[in-house]
Amino acid sequence: MKAFNRIFSAVTVAIILLFAVVNMILAADKTDGSRPYRVEISRLVREIETNGSADMSECVYVTTIERYGEKFYSTDSDYVIYEINGELYRFDYRTNGDSNKAYLAGIVNAVLGAMAILFIAVMLYIKFAILLPFERLSNIPYELSKGNLTMPIKETKNHFFGNFLWGIDILRENLEQQKQRELEMQKEKKTLLLSLSHDIKTPLSVIKLYSAALSRNLYSDTEKQQKIAENITEKADEIEGYVSQIITASREEFLSLEVNIGEFYLSELVEKITGYYREKLALIKTDFNVGKYKNCLLSGDLNRSVEVLQNIMENAIKYGDGRRMELIFSEADECVQIAIMNGGCTLGRDDLPHIFESFWRGANTENIRGSGLGLYICRQLMRKMNGEIFAEIADDIITVTAVFAKA
Asked: Average pLDDT for residues 253-271, to the nearest whole number?
């Protein structure tokens, strides 16, 4: 947009210079509008009054002097009539094309003005109808590339980007569905691993009992029994090692959450959140209040911090009563707390300690789509940014607080 503004300014200056140059050229031979032919006629009148005749040898504008007679009114030239010493005299004159030049200058200026207005109108139309809407859309692919799929694409009446917006929104929905499917697969995989680890433990204990019996010579052929017992114990230990690996794998991180630690201002984070959610909450008739805060420098990843607050806001919209939401800020020595508060909480107090666990969903989430990973991801991100997140319930109001470290 800055490049376009520079081009627009340069073209505007060029148009102004063109106007100035053209008018200077047209005015180069132009008189000052004092009608010089009248000066000559006045001089000739005085000479006739004095001498009875006049010398026209130095006249530039007056072409003929005609005394009253038969040809007095037969002329195609511009003229004026004076009475001198009781007789009428007609003075024919020319204006050296001043009127024609003025007419030509008017036409040229009108044409240039119309072209300038048309050009400026087209440039402004391109700016406001095409470039500005496209500039607002230019951040969408970047957000999608970061995996931010919760933000819907705003509709616009601009017909230039109708199909583009529709296609981008379909892409966003497909990516979101794919992400949900991947999370469900991860959930099924985790459940399967935990189930296998539990099922293997039962035959494992039986194998160990048999090996213990054999090792105590409860069967004949001692040498063979001893060898079988040792083999069973060895295999049992091997299976136990696999089980241990399965359990360990099931507990490891299954999401790749990269965080780029840097510094950013609190106001940047607040503006990104409020800039979108003011409009969204206004559309669903939810009051949105943003408390006062003192701007300061925070440590962490700005994009990931936005993702954390977006997840909390989306949960508040999804599970709250839709009446009111509030952002509350508080400051300690080394941190800033951002609390998101909303009413209509139906989560039980016994469920509160589990809301940050992976794949956990409370009893209040029936018939509401979700993966049970939103707040889990928030906690992982906050801890990677040396912060924390916690939740509190008071009556039917739930407050989720993200703690950010100061830079």
From this structure: 83
